[in-house]
Request: fold
Amino acid sequence: MRSLTSTLDCIGVGTGRNVSVLRDLFGFFRGRLPDDPTGAAVTVSLQAQLRALAGRHVHLNVISVGLDTLDATGQRDADNKIDYAIHRTRTIYATVSLGVGRVEHYAISAADSAGRDDLGSEGEADDLSDEWSVPNDGIDAFVVRNISDTDFVGISPRPGDCDKGDKDDGLVAGEINRGAEAFSRTFAHEIGHYLNLPHNHGDDCPDTTAEQNNLMAQTRCAISARTSVLLTGAQGTTMRGRCQTRSGCP
Reply:
């Protein structure tokens, strides 16, 4: 197994400085473990993360939009929700051998967002991802303050473009004013779309419990935001085969 330093170098995290394992390897913005909304203990494993990055993995750019308008308590809550979503996404994707590698955090102020901190339509969501991008090999996942259009809670092209600067090179991973469990499921669900996973049903909700508990069941069809996070082997194969996934660190 690679060392921590060589793995960080492999995923593009500079090591010529003091390194925080929780911030630089696990991607937690606050540099600490997130709080689980149920009060359950959150744990991570250095060994498991190094092993995961030896296989296929994705890098993420988490871009918050308009969260500067929140008060201090709201900002702390938002930071925890984002860190919890990263943790849950890593845990969910690990079941199909897809790792979550480098996570970088960016912010667009409400003033600079031209009102796109509150999305009123799918078109505005598309404009947001068209107008802003991070020039690296990570998936741009925007987290907005609010989505006032009740037709969606997150939105992503399927599949996302392979090249930055193309039309479908970012996704809206959710709105921060939802509960941590619901927000984190949407976060993982929308990245799944970006990696070419469709909903696992048509216009009607699926019939079986297993299908309703799949991550790619729509929110209205999911049994629980906490438990409806399963992925099949075939879904994992699809995700690992996408151009946005990186080769394992040898």
About this structure: The first helix runs from residue 4 to 10. The two ends are 8 Å apart (CA to CA). The chain is about 30% helix and 15% strand.
